[in-house]
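Hi, here's the filled form for the chain we discussed.

Project: internal
Contact: R.S.
Residues: 307
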Amino acid sequence: MMAAEKKSSTPNRPFLRRIVVTLGPLEEWRGKSRGEIVQFKSDGTLEGLRVTGTFQKTLMGMPQPSQISIYNLSRDTRNAIKGSLTKITVEAGWNNTDLRKVFQGSIMSSSSERNGPDIVTKLVALPGYGSLVRGVSSVTFGAGTPVSVAAQKLASDLPGMTVQGGNFQGVAGNIGPRGWSYAGATKDGLTRLGEEHGFSWSVQDGEVTAIGDRFMLGSYVELNGENGGLISIAPTLTGPMQIQSGVKIKALYVPGISAGHSIKVTSTLNPRLSGTYRIHTMSINIDAYSEAWTMDIESFRFPPGKK
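And the returned structure, exactly as it came back:
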């Protein structure tokens, strides 16, 4: 069982929160930036629209589906957003801060049901889904080609996704003397290349990200039990000898944090678990009208002296 850290009334406690959901334009895989959009804003006020979301992120390819719930939409609006693979973007933040992107993906399904006095529209979405099912590659790389170049070339075959060199960090080494060839689904080619050359890839908020097995993205976020938003922490144990490989963390959600980023944890109840970790998977749960504004993280300890 996770031990709860000491709670503190500080600016890190999320009051006055905002969530903005944008649908469109068109399908995510088309990569269009112009067209008709529908937007819903939730700000925690009596007049505001209630929006809740549970978002899954991972370093490894495609995560589990995320779910967004929007309360009391009109019938016409509910019918208008039933289109499959429509692009959806969710941003979140506090009333006095900029909004940060929490999720971008494609709607896989939409349904509405009555819950007491409310009609709740539930959207199930996946990041990059339309692109991943459509991406096809046929490539050959000669001996000595940087693995990062090969990975970016494969990623560029995912329609609608943004591919930037700065998102391919810690992807080291070169293609071997026999070269490397692949033909088939792009996502499978990226996975094969990553397994052979020591990196993980995923789609994060409309961008393809690849990081080396011993690399962390971005500057670290600090979590602690005094005023840094840490709620609980427990060890992750593996193998017959139950050796600690990392931690499971529950904390207040920090807008902008994502899989692959590093976190520095300082626990007052479990000092031995304090350390720097890389986020492997995370589940984000946000709601501007309840206590839900948290993230559940599975992380592995960052090896000393490595980057």
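Let me know if anything looks off before we file it.
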